[in-house]
Amino acid sequence: MSTASLSSTFLDRGCFLKSEERLSSLAKQNGNKKYFGRSNTLPFKSLRVSNSKPGQEARVALLGASGYTGAEIIRLLTNHPFFGITVMTADRNAGKSIESVFPHFVTQKDLPTLVSTSDANFSDVDAVFCCLPHGTTQEIIKGLPRRLKIVDLSADFRLRDISEYEEWYGQPHRAPNLQEEAVYGLTEIYREKVRYARLVANPGCYPTSIQLPLIPLIKTNLIEHGNIIIDSKSGVSGAGRGAKVSNLYTELTEGIMSYGVTKHRHVPEIEQGLSDAACSKVTVSFTPHLMPMSRGMQSTIYVQMASGVTIEDLYHQLKVSYENEEFVKLLDKGIVPRTHDVRGSNYCYVNVFPDRIRGRAIIISVIDNLVKGASGQALQNLNIMMGFPERTGLEYLPLFP
């Protein structure tokens, strides 16, 4: 493959995303091959603090504090030097202390008493984490003061097409104007849009683990857009804290359970992000599984490389894309990512391997579904929105064993 055609394959996309996305198209040189650079305009370590006063605490409300993602946000914020929780809601546990719901918070004596969402007072609040179930979030966020910065962890604002939302979630979208305003918060890809957003739709856990490795490769035409096969496995906490027979210990232990086969609600979110990167419709085969573990997520992705492209090209593109990122790490060649190695942290570990089938590659990506897949990425986004250094409150090393 000639240098000219190789450069054209890697760089001449014409459009990298639809018109609403303004991403950097800087290239980096590696020998005679050019690679698409990081999609961010600022190096991670030079983030600006522009929207807040140094040393001033931002007051945070947490809606839906009694779920797993709410508890994870509390854990992360207890060591955040700038954010303080002033309001916590949990309708079924209103009037209770948080340690009565989560005993591991017994040492946190300064947290507010849980209140119902209807009784929450937002006069002393600067920003909101919304950890409520999909379908209930739209009306609540619609009623919040416009001055508040909001990160929504539900699925309610992730899909730009509200008819697609109705198709996959079985109910009409009740806040279409807010949907138009919402910014999709896959931080490493859309950092600059997140920076100036008022409402951020935090990505789902599966889409985070899948899009982070695939988007740089699709943007640069290193892989074919068709025949992408994704096998993902998640800890049971990804199903939420509600009592379900299928999530009982005896139902899940010593086994693996596929679910949402051909119809998981994260499919349109995954395809939306990949289609934006390709500037054309991308359809994937995606099957999720529940594993007998409390947290963790692995996505194993099978792709067809473009003509003339090698595993080395894929590896180098991922290296260029994420070499300055704090939370996405390309492992040394040959090292297999493991969920144990990111447990409790905001990291995503990635690597790429040659398949036995000629021309195909296997990409493995691991995250903690409750941190990088939910609450950690939400905090990462709010840090950016409020003008604080992005890593603040997230510098936890993974827990092992």
From TrEMBL:
Q: Which reaction does it catalyse?
A: N-acetyl-L-glutamate 5-semialdehyde + phosphate + NADP(+) = N-acetyl-L-glutamyl 5-phosphate + NADPH + H(+)
Identify which top EC class this enzyme belongs to. Answer: oxidoreductase
* Domain of life of the native organism: Eukaryota
Write one Gene Ontology MF term: N-acetyl-gamma-glutamyl-phosphate reductase activity
| Catalytic-site annotation from UniProt | C205
Q: Which InterPro entries match?
A: AGPR (IPR050085), AGPR_AS (IPR023013), AGPR_dimerisation_dom (IPR058924), AGPR_type-1 (IPR000706), NAD(P)-bd_dom_sf (IPR036291), Semialdehyde_DH_NAD-bd (IPR000534)
Q: Does the keyword Amino-acid biosynthesis apply?
A: yes
Segments crossing the lipid bilayer: none
Tell me which residues make up the Semialdehyde dehydrogenase NAD-binding domain: 59-197
Which pathway does it operate in?
Answer: Amino-acid biosynthesis; L-arginine biosynthesis; N(2)-acetyl-L-ornithine from L-glutamate: step 3/4
UniProt keyword annotations, A-Z: Amino-acid biosynthesis, Arginine biosynthesis, NADP, Oxidoreductase
Listed GO biological process terms: L-arginine biosynthetic process
Q: Which Pfam family is one of this chain's hits?
A: Semialdhyde_dhC_1
What EC number(s) does this enzyme carry? 1.2.1.38
- Say which family it is in: Belongs to the NAGSA dehydrogenase family. Type 1 subfamily.
Instruction: State the name under which the record lists this protein.
Output: Probable N-acetyl-gamma-glutamyl-phosphate reductase, chloroplastic
